[in-house]
Amino acid sequence: MEETFDIGGERTVNRLGFGAMRLCGEDIIGAPDDEENARQVVRRALELGVDFIDTADSYGPGTSERLLREAGAPEEAFVATKAGLLREAGGDWLPHGDPDYIRNQVLVSRDRLGVESIDLYQLHTPDPDTPFEESVTAFAELKDEGFVDHVGLSNVSVDQLETARDIVDIATVQNHYNVRTRDTDRVDGDGRRVLDACEEYGIGFIPYFPLAAGDLSAVEGIDDIAAAHDATVHQVALAWLLHRADVMLPIPGTSSVEHLEANVAAADIDLSDDELATLNANTR
């Protein structure tokens, strides 16, 4: 099992990263009650060798990116952010992939993160009201103009990935995927899954909700495997992702230093072939 991955074939990162969504307040709106604790979580992640951090302009909105800057993350780690979702005070997530909006948001994210160029800029989701090609072209132009180093996608199908690859080099894809739920790894007309395509092309696959929001009770055999490794089921779920594919880049998120340390320790769990077979059999 490879411990690192070269994003875009250029930047080497440790494969177990950190998702910064949970640094925000309730419902991912506004600041957390204890901002210094949030910054400490980020600093501890960096101390533990986490050097790939994922965020988005819609987390807060803006709160997560700001806290990452204040904790020094952009200076020490590869920071990925996203654009393409609007937020409402009630917590709704609204797709918005208009190219002019994307061009505005890259400037905002650069300012919040305190960087000249964003390491990885991702389209958060396709917008049904904006042609997909137009959204991706905006990202391609931002890369050409030096505002971003690499381009990524999120919530896409294989067909959309192929369309995007005709426009710009795609470094990563971020889709819903975990040991409990894999049917959201979207399939094209030929039955090829997004993860398969990412493996074929050497594209990083970032599984969001890598811990199934904590609900792993339906995963057969995971309790016994966790007990055999003196680990938690959540650690086993992360270890499975790391074993699943060398392009896999899990980004478990938390607002707790204790949970962060437990998540990072999952990288040291070596699952046997039999244990992997048991977990693989849970495919939905």
Side by side, the strands of the main sheet go 3-4-5-8-9-10-11
The name CATH uses for the topology is TIM Barrel
Tell me the name of the CATH homologous superfamily.
Answer: NADP-dependent oxidoreductase domain
Poorly predicted ranges (pLDDT <50, ≥5 residues)? none
Mean pLDDT: 95
Total strands: the figure is: 11
Structural class: alpha/beta
Q: Note the beta-strand portion.
A: 15-25%
Return the CATH architecture.
Alpha-Beta Barrel
What is the CATH domain class?
A: Alpha Beta
Instruction: State the helix count.
Output: 11
Rg value? 18 Å
Largest sheet properties: 7 strands, parallel
Domains (count): 1
**How much helical structure, as a percent, in the residues?**
25-40%
Order of helices and strands: EEEHEHHEEEHEHEHEHEHHHH
Instruction: Report the span from N to C terminus.
Output: 24 Å
Characterize the structure shown.
The relative contact order is 0.14. This protein has one domain: Alpha-Beta Barrel (TIM Barrel). Helix 1 runs parallel beside helix 10 (257-265), helix 4 (99-113) crosses helix 5 (132-144) and helix 8 (222-228) crosses helix 9 (233-244). It has a seven-stranded parallel sheet with strand order 3-4-5-8-9-10-11. The protein is of the alpha/beta class. The longest helix has 15 residues, at 99-113. It is 37% helix and 18% strand. The chain is built from eleven helices and eleven strands.
